[in-house]
Fold this sequence. Notes:
Helix content: 25-40%
Number of helices: 10
Distance between the termini: 17 Å
Largest sheet: 3 strands, parallel
Amino acid sequence: MTTRPVLRFAPSPNGELHLGHALSALVGFDMAERLGGRFLVRIEDIDTTRCREEYVSQIFDDLAWLGITWEEPVLRQSEHFTTYGKAADWLLKLGLLYPCFATRSEISEATETAPTPPALDPDGTPLYPGLHKHLPKEEIAARLSRDEPFALRFHMDRALDALEGITGKRRISFRELDEQGRAETIEMDPADWGDAVIVRKDVPASYHLAVTVDDGRQGVTHVTRGRDLYAATSLHRLLQVILGLPEPIYHHHRLLTDADGHKLSKSAGDTSLRQLREKGMSKLQIRQRVGLPPQNVEGNLS
Length: 302
């Protein structure tokens, strides 16, 4: 018996959905319909200080207006911190995470005063300079006893050793579908991210850990998301391999930009779907605005 494909749309309720979200949701929903698959909505609300309940309701209203249907119940990440904690505990037992007590200002100062310009991660942020990578166990214990806030970072060298022990390689690969549905095997180096944060100081997870764990436990077979998350796939695939999670197929769709070429953003106050709906725009017009056909006429993506 063949398992039905599973796709998802996973917004964060920290602002109103805009046209970029409409593109992402419709790309995933359309693909699920083409494949005869299931479509899920997941609320990524681990950042409890920025996420607001009114935006959750609005997300459901916007998606329904677009003609999107999804399975119930909807998974909300804020209700599953224990699950992410178990994954982090496993990585800790493997010796692949270490506590980092450094503040942002300390990290910034270390990178600014370095004798040579620091390398940058794929997002353009200086790689973590390893301030607390080799703290003595006694100092770690003392800081923990004082309840000093800390993040948990990947010990990337050890993580790559673990990857090599499982796959025989220190690089990661994944299948990527282009806009026409043609599959290509991509190879990336997770080391490009350095000692990335896996568990944040303020919440018991990071985006990278939560999204990887959730895609695995929800059985997501096809991950559709924006091109801005393309590089993060190497980090997510690394976590999948080490945690023993299944490998999905990926499709990173084009991004919608404003007149200046900048990605649409909630924080920039781009026109929201709610505003467009109130102005009388139809869901067909939304599909036209984001460059999608009225009906799904593209080839089968599998």
